[in-house]
Amino acid sequence: MKKIPVVAVFDVGKTNKKLFLFDERYKIVFERSARFTETLDEDGDPCENLESLRLSVFDSLREVFRNPEFEVRAINFATYGASFVCIDEEGKALAPLYNYLKAYPEALKKQFYDTYGGEEAFSNLTASPVLGSLNSGMQLYRIKYERPELFRQIRYALHLPQYLSYLISGKAYSDITSIGCHTNLWDFTKNKYHDWVYREGISEKLAPIVPSDTVMPANFPGNSYAVGAGLHDSSSALVPYLVSFNEPFILLSTGTWCISLNPFNAAPLTPEELKNDCLCYLQYEGKPVKASRLFAGYIHEQQVKRIALHFRTDMISYRTFAYDPSIVAALKNEVVMDFSERDLQNYPSDLIAYHRLILDLVHQQYISTTMVLKDTGVKRIFVDGGFSKNTIFMNLLARAFPGLEVFAAHMAQATAVGSALAIHKSWNAKPMPNDIIDLKYYAASR
């Protein structure tokens, strides 16, 4: 039996850790999922169970290599960012993979920003809002001043995608998509590390930067597969769209956070944009991507619970509610406000209340997306993730942007596919596919 040539991709989120095998047409031919119980760092704060993750990578690969159906030609990684794995000369992890939500000491934060020009000016250069531990460079700054002995032992600090790559290749590299994601490390005005990275000796702990399509041989004799350097998950999810569409677009990636990504907007962030949760990513080709964030998925979840409790209904029913323009017309003269402040007694049914919730969320989404849209040639918005399946949200978004084409985009595992596409030429002799994204158009009907 002829083996199927495949690329293996580890897609590691905060909750779910998945392994996918894609064939040469980027169809999923194998999938394995795992979840681990978090462990605690030295302060008792929850953090990733790094040892369980490491063992799971090797166990999963052993399973795949034993499977006679597949010929693994390459391996790549797409994971959440904003955290470093610090390794010593032998490649052993020296410290936990700290949680990016870990509280950051105020005194140390003040010391840093006072030294390097103040919060506003510094954030502007690095396209990084002040986010504490979520600015992963600040984790290394903290180690230097709070745990100097540990800092001295660090050979390399690797973002999680690059650490997983290191486990298989034995080669330590840095990747621009991880470095360029609200880390406080990258000066977007100079297209290089910010001066503080050199002044504090952080640069000596960072592995050489390689392009996102770089591959290395595996660190195991007798194996011929290529190993990618890994990508940050948000940037990886953008790759299929950049490969598939040449005309300028915005990708609205929806989940707990709704992130508007504009790869055709390289304008520097303004102080106002930074205050309103705008930031910049670097996409896999090294170009800036202006982005804005809205906590819409979380808000939606909390308010749906409130509606269901008030009307004594099942939350699951809201997933199949149809868009009703007559309800929208009846609600259009209400004052715009945060839905959490609305009195549910004012709505005769849960269907009407739910339309009101989505109207309020789309109003906020319009403001958020417009921040990265203005002064660009964008003509299309692609929506992926949870809200792309919500017909009320999609119809109202199309109404909010009548001058643009709005599409619900559906593709299986965009993050993992993006990681595979980034190293396409290293394992796949077929041309790039042009049919991996299914689009549904929503007209801006009145």
By CATH's scheme, which homologous superfamily of the largest domain applies? Answer: ATPase, nucleotide binding domain
Question: What is the CATH T-level topology of the largest domain?
Answer: Nucleotidyltransferase, domain 5
- For the record, the count of structural domains works out to 2
Task: Detail the poorly predicted runs.
Answer: none
Q: Return the CATH class of the largest domain.
A: Alpha Beta
How large a portion of the residues is in β-strands, by DSSP E?
15-25%
CATH architecture verdict of the largest domain: 2-Layer Sandwich
Q: How would a textbook summarize the main sheet?
A: 7 strands, mixed
| Quaternary status | single chain
- CA radius of gyration is 23 Å
* Helix/sheet category: alpha/beta
Could you estimate the helical fraction of the residues in percent? 25-40%
Work out the helix count: 15
Mean pLDDT: 93
Overall 3D geometry?
Answer: globular
Cα distance spanning the termini: 57 Å
